[in-house]
Amino acid sequence: MLPSNNGNSYIGQIVNVSPNTEYTLKTYIKTNAADAKVNLCIRGGTESQMQANAGDVLFDEKYGGADWTPVEVTFNSGSHSFVLVSLVKWEENTASSVYRNPAYIDNVSLKLANPELMVNGDFENGNNSWRKIGTAAISNNMWEGEYIAYEGQYYGMLPSQTNNAALYQTLELKANTTYNVKAKVAVQTGGEVIFAVKTPDLSGHYPGGTIETKIEGTGLSWVDFEYEFTTKTQTSVAVAFIKWSDTTSGGVYNGQVYIDNVSLKEVSKEVEELLRRMKSEREEKQINDFGWVWYTPYITEEECINNGTLNDWCKKAGEMIGIPTLHNHDLRHSGSNILKELGMDIQDIAELLHHESTETTIKHYLTVNKKKVKDNKDKFVF
C-alpha cells in the first residue's frame, strides 16, 4: 500500500531475470478514486541500480480507479539481468486526488511470456527428462578431438544398426493450440528420423489426427529442423524423435541420427491479433493505408514508406523485443518466404522486391521447404 496524503512513495521488488527474454506481469491495482492514477513501473539494470530505483525504464504506465483494475503487461528484459517492478506515487500537488488517496497493489506475478516446454532440450543434464526406447542414447562422444554435439558436450543419438529407437518426453500441452518445435538434427545419408506427437506411452498416433514428419538424411552435418502442429482435445502427449524400420537392412536401419537443442514453444497469436486490431482501427478512423502495413501520411498506392524512416522504426522495434540488430531488410527476406508459402508466383515476388530477375530472388531470398517438396513428391505415383 502507498498511503494517503502522501506524494512521494513506492513499493517494489527486485527480480533476477534472463536477458533478452519476454516476461508477462500480472497484478491488480486500486486507488479508491477514478481520477487518482499511479505509475506501474518496470526498470532494468544492475542490482545496485535497482536498489537505487534507477536504471532503464522498460515499462511505465498509469493505473487506478475505485475498483480493483486487472493489469497484464508483457515486456522484454533487454540486456538486463535484474528488473525492479514497482508501484510509484509521485505528486507535488497536495490538493490532488492522487496525493489524497491511497494506492493498493495485490496478486503480483511475473512469468516467462512464452516459456520453453522441453526440459533439458540441449541434453547437457544427461538422461534427465528424456525417455529412451531401444538403443537410443545421450552421448558426449568426440570426433577428431571435438565434441560431436552442436553446442556443449551432450547430444541425443539414435544409433546405426537398429530399426527401433526413440528419444522422447511426456508433456502436458493445451488443447486446440498451435506449437512450434525447433531442433538441430544430423542424419546420415540414406537414413531418416521421424518427429512425432503421440500418446504418452508412444504406443499410438495422436488422437484426432496423426502429427508427424520425416527428416531425411543429408550427411552427418547439423541442419535446422522446424515444424508446427496444432493439438486437438488430447493434452497428455509424448513428443518424440523416432527411428523405425520394418527391416534390418537399408538406409534407415544403418543410418545414424544426432539430435540437439530441442525447443518447443506455444505459437504466439499476439502479432496476428495486433494486425487485426490495426486493420480494424484504420477502417474505423477511415485511414487509407493503400494496403501497406507501415503507414505515414506521405504514402500512396505506388509509394510506400521511406526506407530511412522504416529502418529507424525497425531499430526501435528491435530494441524493444531484444533484437537490436533488426533491419528493415530482414523483413524482405521473411516476407518473401511467407508469400512463396502462400502460393504467390516467384516472378511476382521478384517484382515486389524490385529484382531485375528471379535469379536473385531464388538464390538470395527464398529457402527450400524440404517437407513441402517431399509431400508434393509423395502425391505422384511412378
Using the CA coordinates, give the radius of gyration: 26 Å
Number of strand elements = 19
Stated plainly, the CATH topology of the largest domain is called Jelly Rolls
Q: From the helix content, strand content and strand pairing, which structural class follows?
A: alpha+beta
Beta-strand residue percentage: 35-45%
Low-confidence stretches: none
Domain module tally: 3
Q: What's the helical proportion of residues?
A: 10-25%
Overall pLDDT level: 88
CATH-derived architecture of the largest domain: Sandwich
* Series of secondary-structure elements, N-terminal to C-terminal: EEEHEEEHEEEEEEEEEEEEHEHHHHHH
Key terms:
5-stranded antiparallel β-sheet, Jelly Rolls, globular, 3 domains, single chain, 382 residues, alpha+beta
Account of the protein in words:
By secondary structure, this protein is of the alpha+beta class. It folds into three domains: 8-112, Sandwich (Jelly Rolls), CATH 2.60.120; 131-266, Sandwich (Jelly Rolls), CATH 2.60.120; 281-375, no CATH class. Helices cover 21% and strands 36% of the residues. The chain has nine helices and 19 strands. The protein has helices spanning 47-51, 97-100, 250-254, 270-284, 307-321, 328-341, 346-352, 358-364, 370-377, and strands spanning 8-16, 22-30, 38-45, 56-63, 69-76, 82-90, 104-112, 131-133, 137-139, 142-143, 146-147, 155-158, 164-172, 178-187, 192-198, 211-216, 219-230, 236-244, 257-266. The strands form five sheets. A five-stranded antiparallel sheet has the order 8-13-18-15-16. Strands 9-12-19-14-17 form a five-stranded antiparallel sheet, with no helix packed on it. A hairpin with a 2-residue loop joins β10 (142-143) and β11. α7 packs across α8 (358-364).
